[in-house]
Specification:
This protein is of the alpha/beta class. It contains ten helices and 14 strands. The protein has two domains: about 5-180 and about 295-385, Aminopeptidase (3-Layer(aba) Sandwich), CATH 3.40.630; about 185-295, Alpha-Beta Plaits. It has an eight-stranded mixed β-sheet, sandwiched between helices.
């Protein structure tokens, strides 16, 4: 059985789909989303919902209700630097693409805003709606926190939904540990460039990089248990510009994914030790730059259970199972501060054979998921702040 909020959300299907398609055609990346921010701000203004725009980060915080109790819901808005190949009639053409479904999230949040505003008289507290930038580069949540968005009033608990393109509409997945932490790094090795005919006069950073790469793989093979759920990948390697010249520098970039915070700290330490130790052995200077640093997403057990009840209250036919994956999410920055729940939500197209993974240039999402997400958000807010 569907609750009243779900029935109201279904009446917004056409409007939310239109919002989503307009957003889909103006994808923007990182911390600079001027067109997206302008679109969201315009809709919030039309709804007579007060909001704050953080211009330096393209983050928006909208507030509905009054009081000291505060519940937060978050939807991310940024896209990816991917050339779209979906063949949707509303496909983007600016070299970027909403290949992770954040346009869906923004539309769901606007739908939730409209629903919550209609029930504002039932609230005994403040609903904070975070329209967040830069999730894909793990910078938006930190920018929100640094700007003080979690305060005045202080956020007591939070929830986020994320569409999942490989699961059917009507299914959701959650877990205490739904997403791994990420540590992205760049290793720059500085040697001494010489002509390839006289290598003894130089210091070859390529050789050093190869041994570091091998050392990191042996770290995984000999210091990590198969039960520890750790992934370490070097996905980028660049050195040199000519076949007969030993270059002065070589660069490699990698990513570490792990669920256990203690293992994460030990792995980071060992990455640095192996890099510096091997570099010293081969007379090469090594510099390590941190590209991303987001903790594992750890949800509060009580919040996960409570949100599962909310999901079933919104629509008893929705199914909830477990989601536990090595992908990362900067919602983890909020869950470190307050009790939080995070659920993946099925948004796969109707034909299972046409469902593609996130970040694929041909991916398509099912807009039937929009009212489900909006209703879950609104039900959670009204239930929490109506108590």
């Amino acid at each position: 059985m569907k609750n009243q909020i779900m029935l109201e959300a279904e009446q917004l299907q056409e409007e939310m789909s239109a919002w989503r398609r307009e957003l889909h055609q103006i994808p923007e990346i990182g911390l600079a989303l001027p067109k997206t921010v302008a679109f969201v701000a315009k809709k919030l203004k039309e709804m007579e919902i007060p909001y704050t725009v953080y211009e330096d980060s393209s983050n928006i915080v909208a507030c509905i209700g009054q009081g000291d109790t505060c519940y937060m819901i978050r939807g991310d808005m940024d896209a990816l630097p991917i050339e779209e190949q979906s063949r949707e009639p509303f496909a983007s053409s600016n070299g970027c693409m909403h290949a992770c479904g954040h346009d869906m999230h923004t539309a769901m949040m606007l739908g939730a805003a409209k629903l919550i505003k209609a029930h504002e008289s039932e609230l005994h507290g403040v609903a904070k709606l975070f329209f967040q930038s830069a999730e894909e580069i793990f910078a938006g949540a930190k920018a929100m926190i640094n700007a003080g968005a979690m305060e005045n009033p202080h956020v007591d608990a939070a929830m986020a939904l994320h569409v999942f393109s490989q699961k059917p509409v009507g299914t959701l997945g959650g877990d205490i540990h739904p997403c791994a932490g990420v540590y992205g790094f760049r290793i720059k090795l500085i040697g001494k460039g010489v002509h390839g005919s006289s290598p003894e006069g130089g210091i070859d950073p390529i050789v050093t990089a190869i041994h570091i790469h091998q050392g990191l793989q042996e770290l995984m093979a000999r210091e990590i248990s198969g039960f520890d759920e750790v992934a370490l990948t070097i996905g980028k390697f660049h050195a040199g510009s000519a076949a007969n010249i030993i270059p002065e520098t070589a660069e490699m970039e990698g990513t570490l994914r792990v669920f256990d915070p203690e293992i994460r700290e030990r792995m980071i330490q060992r990455i640095h030790e192996i890099t510096q130790g091997i570099a010293a052995a081969y007379r090469t200077k090594a510099e390590i730059e941190v590209l991303s640093d987001v903790p594992p997403l750890v949800c509060d057990e009580k919040e996960i259970t409570w949100c599962q009840d909310v999901i079933h209250e919104a629509d008893g036919s929705l199914t909830v199972d477990t989601f536990h994956a090595m992908g990362s999410e900067d919602f983890a920055c909020y869950s470190e501060l307050v009790p939080a729940a995070f659920y993946m939500m099925g948004a796969g197209v109707d034909n299972p054979e046409e469902r593609l993974p996130q970040h694929n240039p041909k991916i398509r999402f099912n807009e039937k998921a929009l009212p489900i997400g909006a209703a879950i958000y609104a039900t959670a807010v009204i239930k929490r702040l109506g108590e």
